[in-house]
Amino acid sequence: MTQKTAFTEKKFIVTFIFVTSLFLLWGVAHSISDVLNKHFQNVLQLSKSQSGLIQFSVFGAYFFMSIPAGLFMKRFGYKNGVMLGLLLFALGAFLFVPAANRVSFPFFRFALFILGCGMATLETVAHPFIAALGQQQTSDRRINFSQSFNALGTMIGPALGSNLLLAGATGTGNLTSVKTLYTGIAGVLVAVALAFAFVKVPALSAAHELHADEAQPDAAPGKKLLHHHHFVWAAIAQFFNVAAQAGTWGFFINYGHDVMGFSDARAGNYMILFMAMMALGRIAGTWLMKFIAPNKLLAAFAFGSMVMCCIVAQGWGWVSFSALLMINFFFSIMFPTIFSLGLKSLGRHTQQASSFISMGVVGGAFFPFVMGLIANHNVATAYYLPVVCYLVIFLFAVRFYQVKQG
């Protein structure tokens, strides 16, 4: 008889809830950054390619911070890693106040960089943390479940941004709303950090080390991290995944304005539906993984994204806009599933591997700028570019995800 593997254990429930809440918090921050793209175009008179530097600042922080965060986590543990991430996150949000006072885009980018360092730390820590709160056999489902709350956060972000930023005036005086918004975010982050400080985290076994009742083989004990090809390909796939995400999200409001003729505020409100599609996709994906292998589901969703991007690029009114909404449904499971597949059977290398996969998020730093150069002329045509990214993810899911021994 085979025993059904539990989703998690009772002793981990409180910790699981707190760590899952982190996914929601950085989801809010990421999606508000996409609203800032259009807001700063209006307030600071930036071009589309210049506003793409917002994503460069946030995702560029992942390149610099992911490895130090992983080393910190390895030395001081998961809980202290979370505390460091929350404090950096809050500091970056507080820095929006002096940046708004100076009406300085470079200062805003510095604040976004510090905020991004906090998010990079949290992402580096949270994924292996969630994976460790139970057996490896159910780690894909746990990470996708927690990422569903990240999707909820990405719905809250546009709702806040559209109502507090895009619905107001376009002059520099409207930066007051930016200060109010980010001061509130910082306050929430400090409160969560204080609460988490009192949580007692149970002893954890090494993340993604296999239990005796699991069928997957152990990785070779003496094997170096870079010799695990499934990990290397996961890091590459994550680079292209976040590149596609940053570009697709960053110019969503521009697409609504330029192609569909929406006001900025209305386009921002449609972004809530856009993010709801991602939440729906993650809920559906978490359920489907009970019956379909994660890599096969990832391949199907990557193919769906490629088809949707090609339709979006045609600029066919509501048909293309509906396809744009569907991109986020298919995108939904990609980040957590790539992360989980990349961490399989790495044993003692898991925390270091998490750092490198998080570092791959730097793809989101460059892609919006490149898409912005095309979007300056035609925002619909710019959506051909993510097809290349989804093709790489498709190849990873079909062939390069496999764990090899020896």
From TrEMBL:
Gene Ontology MF annotations: fucose:proton symporter activity
Keyword field: Cell membrane, Membrane, Transmembrane, Transmembrane helix
Domain spans labelled Major facilitator superfamily (MFS) profile: 15-405
Membrane topology, from the record: Multi-pass membrane protein
GO CC terms in record: plasma membrane
Protein's cellular compartments: Cell inner membrane
Residues passing through the membrane, by range: 12-32, 52-72, 84-101, 107-130, 151-169, 181-199, 231-255, 267-285, 297-317, 323-343, 355-375, 381-401
Pfam families according to UniProt: MFS_1
Alphabetized Gene3D superfamilies for the sequence: MFS general substrate transporter like domains
Domain of life: Bacteria
Major subcellular location class: membrane
UniProt KW Transmembrane helix keyword: yes
Protein's UniProt name: MFS transporter, FHS family, L-fucose permease
Natural source organism: Filimonas lacunae
